[in-house]
Structure formats: structure tokens, C-alpha cells
Design a protein that fits this description.
Length: about 200
């Protein structure tokens, strides 16, 4: 991870970073403010529009923290400047998604609709795929971890199944399809199948 830790972070215009001695880092930008506490052993150096993370030694623990701190800080800078989003596609007959205020309402084959309340800093958007006419749900927010967690909870409502591909999946997800059972049931001589000669 040290190779990642050594990479400088370019701070966009309109984004400010303030680091305190106890490891508390505040990043402000057009999208809002994110606060996270890192290990106080890691030093964040600001040089104009460039931010760097420095480690005290080359011990394995410090090398690991170096890369982790740099990655999390980079995600904070990206989050307050452009934000993060994940896109989920729905596939299934009668599957629907709609917004009910800020909440997301899913109809995915259950006897009742599923209501999902957004976490703090998360917003939902629903559009229709012009080709398949199926709903596309977008989860957006500043915090990459929260966006990922919220998306995983939506996918968990109806994970994609491998036979017909029905369910909720990430837009970049590839579901390995399985072939269904072919031929007559019990063709090997089971109950109700063909008899052995």
C-alpha cells in the first residue's frame, strides 16, 4: 500500500482540508462537509493545491496505514467535490420502483411493497430504461462507504437469481446464468420417469 500512499492528492478549487494533531480531518467542498478521524501517526501535509500523507517509519503497520489514509482522504476530497453514485438495474415482470418523498418504494414480486429510507447524506433517483422499460435506481451521496452500503441493502431486497436473471443488480455486475433442467423429469428412471429396460 505504500505506493498508493506516496501518490499526491490534487485538491480541486473550492475544496479545503484542515487536519488537527489528534488525526481529525475536515474536508469541505461544494457538496458539503465530511469529517473523519485517522491515526495520529499519519501526517497530512498541505502544499497549495496538493495534499500528501507522510508516515513516520517503514514498519509494516505504518506502510499499511499510509495507503489506507491516502485512499480515504482521496475519497473524501472526491466526495465533497463531485460525489459518488451507484446504479442498480431491475429485471423482472411487474418490477417497479418509485420515490415516495425521499424514500424508495420497490415492488419486486413480494405480496407487499418494500420501503427503503435513505441514510444520512444519501439521495435516490429513479428513471426508466428506454430499451427494456425497467426501472433504474441511482444511489448518490458524498460518502463512498455509505453509498456502497445503501446500494448493497437495496440489492439485498431481491438479489439476482441465476436462471432467468430476475432481481436487482449493479449496472456493472455480471450474473453467471445457469441452464435450467432439460428433458423430462426423472429421465434416469426416477419416479414418474422412463422405466429402465
Amino acid at each position: 500500500m505504500s505506493r498508493i500512499g506516496k501518490q499526491p492528492i490534487t485538491v480541486p478549487a473550492g475544496v479545503s482540508i484542515s487536519a488537527e494533531a489528534d488525526g481529525r480531518v475536515t474536508v469541505k467542498g461544494p457538496k458539503g462537509t465530511l469529517v473523519k478521524t485517522f491515526s495520529p501517526e499519519m501526517k497530512i501535509v498541505l502544499d497549495g493545491a496538493i495534499a500528501r500523507v507522510e508516515r513516520p517509519t517503514d514498519h509494516d503497520r505504518h506502510r499499511a496505514l499510509h495507503g489506507l489514509t491516502r485512499t480515504l482522504l482521496f475519497n473524501m476530497v472526491t466526495g465533497v467535490s463531485t460525489g459518488f453514485q451507484k446504479i442498480l438495474n431491475m429485471t423482472g415482470v411487474g418490477y417497479r420502483a418509485q420515490l415516495n418523498g425521499k424514500n424508495l418504494q420497490l415492488n419486486v414480486g413480494y405480496s407487499h411493497p418494500v420501503h427503503i429510507e435513505p441514510k444520512e447524506g444519501i439521495s435516490f433517483a429513479v428513471v426508466q430504461d428506454p430499451g427494456t422499460r425497467m426501472p433504474i435506481v441511482t444511489v448518490a451521496g458524498m460518502d463512498k462507504e455509505t453509498v456502497g452500503q445503501q446500494s448493497a441493502e437495496i440489492r439485498k431486497v431481491r438479489p439476482p437469481e441465476p436462471y432467468k436473471g430476475k432481481g436487482i443488480r449493479y449496472s456493472t455486475e455480471v450474473v453467471r446464468r445457469k441452464a435450467g433442467k432439460s428433458g423430462k423429469a426423472g429421465a434416469k428412471g426416477g419416479k414418474g420417469g422412463a422405466k429402465k429396460k
